[in-house]
Design brief:
The protein has 314 residues and is α+β, with helices and mostly antiparallel strands. The protein has helices at residues 2-18, 94-102, 107-126, 131-134, 138-156, 172-251, 257-274, 286-305, 307-313, and strands at residues 19-22, 26-32, 35-40, 43-46, 52-59, 63-72, 78-89, 158-170. It has a 3-stranded antiparallel sheet with strand order 3-2-5, covered by helices on one side. The radius of gyration is 59 Å and the shape is rod-shaped.
Amino acid sequence: MSGGLIFLGIIFLVVMLSFVTVQQGTVAVITVFGKFRRIMRPGLNMRIPFIEHIFKRISYQNRSMDLKFQAITLDQANVYFTAMLLYSVVNQDSQTMENVAFKFMDDRNFMQALIRSVEGAVRAFVATKKQSEILQLRTEIILHVKEQLDIQLEGWGYHLLDLQINDITFDEVIIKSMAQVVASNNLKAAAENEGQALLITKTKAAEAEGNAIKISAEAERQAAQMRGQGVALFREEVARGMATAAKEMETANLDASYILFSMWTDAIKHFAEYGKGNTIFLDGSSNNYQRTMQQLMSTLQGFDKGDEFGQNKK
């Protein structure tokens, strides 16, 4: 009776060991006497107890890790990278899972190889570029790394999904110098803009001043022309009036010196009226009066000669 219970117990144990549950997102690698045999997919699976052994459970979900490393540019500047690496198993095929399970001794060695491969690819690219170009080549660095590692990682059973370079920094001295370059460029741009604005302002002011001068000069020219025309007309009218008065005096048999005396006294009256308090000195002696009258008579004779001119003009 006891032997039957033992036999039933052994059968129950064998049956229990024959069923294996594989969790979702993982694959179980089965070996027989240390040699790869097959894989078990998620769900309930069966195996041969004591012969088929679960060597490793491999996750085919996406995995990520943070990287921090340093590179040197072509002009010997230190560049510090902070990146995030996203990778996964290529697929769930038996060959892929065999590569994942047996290419490396353990996950630690795989992670070390993956990190060093990424760092090497980035450093090889950065070494061909200058420090001033690195910040503009973020996308090119990522594409270069993926191009270099895709074939290599596929041989390991993995695929590089994405490499995100989160931060690129330089030595403190370089950062300060870059900030100074940016500041100086901004100052230069500001000075150029200010100079252009000042040039435009002064140009417009000069144009306005020039236009004002032109307008003022034109107005002055027209005013001078009008003044000259006024003076000419005044002189013409004076000459015509004096000629007419002289002719009338001659017709009336009067002395023409009376007209000159009247003009002289009117002139003195005008001086006194509009002199605004200024002192006018006149020589009132008989000799000066005679000399003045002679000068006025000579002027009148000139008007008599110009009478024909006045008549022709009429």
